Amino acid sequence: LYKSRGQHLLTNSRVLDSIVRCSEISPDDTVLEIGPGTGNLTLKLLQQAKNVVALEIDNRMVDILQRRVADTGLQSRLNIICGDALKTELPQFDLVVANIPYGISSPLLAKLLYGTNANPFRAATLLLQKEFAKRLMAEPGDSSFNRLALNMNLMADIEFVMDVSKREFTPPPKVDSAVVKLRPRSHVPEVNLPEWCAFTRTCFGNRNRTLGASFKKKRKLMELMRFSGGHGDGEEEEEEEAELRLFRERVGGVLSSGGFADRRPSKMSSDELLDLLALFNESGVYFHD
């Protein structure tokens, strides 16, 4: 097994059954499994779902998976895609059920919920590193509240299901795991998602710093000014400084008018940050990666 690819196979049948049960699979469902490995979870999913799409990067695992499924007579229900989950265009599916490689958890969740070709799906039942799961479920005001939790909770309800000991894997990883369930929200706020992601990256650059302090940095103000229609490039130094001073006053005015200057993003809800982004846009300030 390649530890560099996060290959730790879940072998406890009781835990596998619990994951399948809490996934609430219907007979007509197509299930996407990312990182099936040798198929311990896949075999159980095939017994419940109409189809399983297994996305696996390792050809060796694909060969083992094909042989194991052939022995069950359920191969007609299985579609194996050999590729990188972060680079592969995902097919249509109803559910995600997966033991996700720890190293790609964050970008993979972003792809599922924020991707340009993101599919509408009912739920995702995911086995994640326990510390990552805790970060994912942090709430405003918690010491661990972070940009990941903010962005994921904007798009989905997140439910803790159960802890899974590292002893249930072969080879055992260094840390314990947890199962969480994500249900995409039926109503997502009307916001430009790429801009929202750029905005929250700016706010959470130092999540415990006040927004007033974060938006005083000259480099960040220059970036915002250029993207918001200012020049700030190729001008005479005096003209550039004058334009930057006016832009800084505009940004400061937005923060002060909404009572946000002394607020810390780690203690703010998504609704409050959405309100702040709307105020910035109304004043002609926009965000871009």
From TrEMBL:
Residues 15-186 form the Ribosomal RNA adenine methylase transferase N-terminal domain. GO terms for cellular component: mitochondrion. It is an enzyme of class 2 (transferase). InterPro entries: KsgA/Erm (IPR001737), rRNA_Ade_Mease_Trfase_CS (IPR020596), rRNA_Ade_methylase_Trfase_N (IPR020598), rRNA_adenine_dimethylase (IPR011530), SAM-dependent_MTases_sf (IPR029063). It holds the Pfam family RrnaAD. Keywords: Methyltransferase, RNA-binding, rRNA processing, S-adenosyl-L-methionine, Transferase. Its EC number is 2.1.1.-. S-adenosyl-L-methionine binds at H8, L10, G35, E56, D84, N99. Gene3D superfamilies: 1.10.8.480, Vaccinia Virus protein VP39 (3.40.50.150). One of its GO terms (molecular function) is rRNA (adenine-N6,N6-)-dimethyltransferase activity. It comes from the Eukaryota. Belongs to the class I-like SAM-binding methyltransferase superfamily. rRNA adenine N(6)-methyltransferase family. This is rRNA adenine N(6)-methyltransferase. It comes from Genlisea aurea.
